[in-house]
Amino acid sequence: MMIQISFYLTLALYGVATLLYLGCLLPKAPCLAAIARKVLIAGFLAHCLSTIHRYIAAGHLPITNMHESLSFFALSIVAAYLYFEFRFRVTTLGSFVIPLALLVMIGSSRFSSGLYPLNPALQSVWIYSHTVLAFGAYAFFTIAGGVAGMYLIQSHFLKKKQLGTLFQKLPSLDTLDEIGYRCLSFGFPMLTLGIITGAIWAAQAWGSYWSWDPKETWSLITWFVYAALLHGRLTTGWRGRRAAWLTVAGFLIMLFTFIGVNLWMPGLHSYN
Asked: Of 52, 71, 113, 124, most Cβ neighbours within 10 A?
């Protein structure tokens, strides 16, 4: 009962925070950034409480079905976002990221929230390192996707010389570029370690480091996309609209790897 209460309280608080952050983009509406941040933090704490309650009830990290994994994904997104808001004071980033976290939570609520025993193959200490690294990488890539969207909007305004209210409210291209790079520099090593620990875990659980399961294949595709993007930035200083579009593409591929594969391509990594 307490798990459900804290989950839906989280959903409600994220909904209010989303409205407040979106309000910051409206031309004549006051930007209630401080209130939005406090509501979001309250939602984040409620989300942590919900996750802890579920962990205690299930006896394992709650990431083993679609309801749990989507909820944990949303938690990771909000945690990563709060870091960047406090680090860069870029409130309007919340207008692009927090709605995504809310949609993920709504998606989580559409799946069964029942507690299920852990599959014997998943009963390993690797569940913590592999999944936390993977969700952390996905969260940073989600922030990078939101930043890339903002970058494309700002560059469009500059190209068309439409320097109106929304242009003034969004961060500069340099700030967005720096945040995007930090997301990649955090997310890519986490994804790499997540794949490595996953391979070790797979060898223990199924006797093979790599079996070309759909999730493994698409994780590798995701890795190559972000490896190309990070390599381009580090070696040739690749920036601008092309890099932003590739970041958006990487985000969409990541979403398919995480959600689409689980729903439409059954395999060893399929959720309930």
From this structure: 71
Instruction: Give, in degrees to the nearest 5, the angle at Cα 190 between 235 and 227.
Output: 30
Q: Give the Cα separation of 35 and 20 in Å (integer).
A: 8
- The pTM for the full model equals 0.92
Q: Report pLDDT digits (tens) over 245-260.
A: 999 999 999 999 998 8
Cβ atoms of 84 and 179 within 8 Å: the answer is: yes
* Whole-number percent of the chain with pLDDT over 90: 51
- Rounding to the nearest 10 degrees, give the CA dihedral for residues 146, 251, 78, 174: -40
CA pair distance 169, 96, nearest whole angstrom: 13
Cα end-to-end distance, the chain, whole Å: 21
Beta-carbon contacts of 119 under 8 Å, excluding residues fewer than 6 positions away, are 64
